[in-house]
């Protein structure tokens, strides 16, 4: 367990107030790290911080309200984090949104909305984190991609395009940051049981389970464990990779 080396690591997590992001924060906290929850929803953020840090005093700051689409706000947030906790050592670019529309139907607004969060927001976040890490010439960043970045389905052109871009941006960042001893990797989740899935019809979810070789949907903590591995010293010679965690869903063609 010493190879994890997460004790007191300062780790901002975008989209940390719900779903996979919250699961990541809980897992990191359990390993002795200091996950910082960054999210645009103030109510969800306050609740999630209490969940991850139930013992925290009222003046302790572990949550930061942030819209990742705003590059200046991202830079200001990381300046606040440095002031409150010192320079970051690791980071998880997890914030993302989904949008269902085909090429023929998607509007400019829908396209820009997805790209501003899933692509621009990831770059702004990783750039701000890497600038702090580069000073110490060490660090690790994990981005949240998706199996939708590796394969496609109908009426998901913006989402699949944005996640494919995250996969390749992760590779590019790994090359740019390698000389600073900063590793950058991505995790590509399959279908995970989060609040987003609750709106889907039961028959759709059951059909998905039947396609997954492990015959179930994933849990948020199962993705969090992959993120923990990629951030830790156990992955010290891994960079620029995308780790698929989908229960085997992408192995099947029918």
What does this molecule look like?
The protein is of the alpha/beta class and 254 residues long. Helices cover 43% and strands 14% of the residues. It has helices at residues 19-30, 42-52, 71-85, 108-136, 157-177, 202-211, 220-231, and strands at 10-14, 34-39, 63-65, 90-93, 139-144, 182-189, 242-245. The strands form 2 sheets. Strands 4-5-6-7 form a 4-stranded parallel sheet, with helices on both faces. Strands 1-2-3 form a 3-stranded parallel sheet, with helices on both faces. Helix 3 packs parallel to helix 4 (108-136) and helix 4 (108-136) runs parallel beside helix 5 (157-177). The longest helix is centred in the middle third of the chain and has 29 residues, at 108-136. The mean pLDDT is 95.
Side-by-side strand order of the widest sheet: 4-5-6-7
Beta percentage is 5-15%
Tally of individual helices:
7
Quote the distance from N terminus to C terminus.
40 Å
Count of DSSP strands:
7
Q: How helical, in percent, are the residues?
A: 40-55%
SSE class: alpha/beta
Shape: globular
The whole-angstrom Rg is: 18 Å
Mean pLDDT: 95
Poorly predicted spans: none
The biggest beta sheet reads:
4 strands, parallel
SSE sequence, one letter per element: EHEHEHEHEHEHHE
């Amino acid at each position: 367990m010493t190879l994890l080396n997460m004790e007191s690591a300062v780790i901002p997590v975008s989209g940390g107030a719900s779903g996979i992001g919250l699961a990541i924060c809980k897992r990191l906290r359990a390993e002795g790290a200091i996950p910082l929850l960054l999210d645009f929803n103030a109510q969800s953020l306050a609740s999630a911080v209490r969940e991850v840090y139930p013992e925290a005093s009222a003046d302790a700051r572990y949550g930061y309200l942030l819209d990742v689409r705003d590059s200046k706000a991202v830079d200001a947030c990381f300046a606040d984090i440095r002031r409150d906790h010192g320079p970051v050592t690791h980071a998880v670019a997890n914030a993302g949104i989904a949008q269902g529309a085909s090429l023929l139907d998607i509007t400019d607004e829908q396209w820009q909305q997805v790209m501003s969060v899933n692509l621009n927001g990831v770059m702004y976040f990783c750039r701000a984190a890497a600038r702090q890490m580069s000073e110490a010439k060490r660090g690790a960043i994990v981005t949240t991609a998706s199996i939708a970045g590796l394969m496609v389905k109908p009426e998901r052109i913006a989402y699949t395009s944005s996640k494919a871009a995250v996969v390749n941006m992760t590779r590019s960042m790994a090359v740019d940051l390698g000389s600073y001893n900063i590793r950058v990797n991505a995790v590509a989740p399959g279908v995970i049981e989060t609040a987003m899935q609750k709106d889907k019809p039961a028959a759709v979810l059951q059909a998905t389970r039947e396609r997954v070789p492990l015959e179930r949907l994933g849990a948020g903590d199962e993705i969090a464990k992959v993120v923990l591995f990629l951030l830790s010293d156990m992955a010290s010679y891994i960079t620029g990779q995308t780790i698929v965690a989908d229960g085997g869903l992408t192995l099947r063609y029918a």
